[in-house]
Write a structure and sequence with these properties.
This protein is mainly α. It contains seven helices and no strands. The longest helix is centred in the middle third of the chain and has 50 residues.
Length: 174
Amino acid sequence: ANTTTATENQVAKEDKKKKKETVSILRLFQFATKRDLFLICIAGFCSSTTGAIQPISILFFGNVLKKLGEAIVDGSDLMEATMPIIKLYAYLGTGVMAAAYISNCLWVLTGENQARRIRQLYVHSILRQDMSWFDKSEEGSLTTRLSADVQLIQDGISEKFGQFLMCFAQFIAG
């Protein structure tokens, strides 16, 4: 009895050690239509812009401090010296808000479209199976796998991919 348990434990450990098969970034979007790909490009640009603006805005903040220092030393009006930079920050904030909203909407939209397409293809492939194939599968396993797997894919190609692009652009700009 102990040898069987030890063997089962060893097999379980080996299964955990096995690396799960990864998918390339391009294969993530294999179910996207041309329209989806166009929207993905726009969303990627907006996500990258949103991420890059934060480190770049630090350069503008240096100008604010420089102008404040010069205005204090010269004794000139602080508001007049810093108003162009304040307006620039207002424009940057508005631009970031718009870009973040657009990118988030487009990532969710394209993710939903692709997930719907994957579900349809999955159901069609199940319906083409031989009758004996359904006898071998467990009750409820098909619907559970369909919803769980497609949700994982949708998470990866929706907001999380947009967040990845945003953080990557932030890293590069930083």
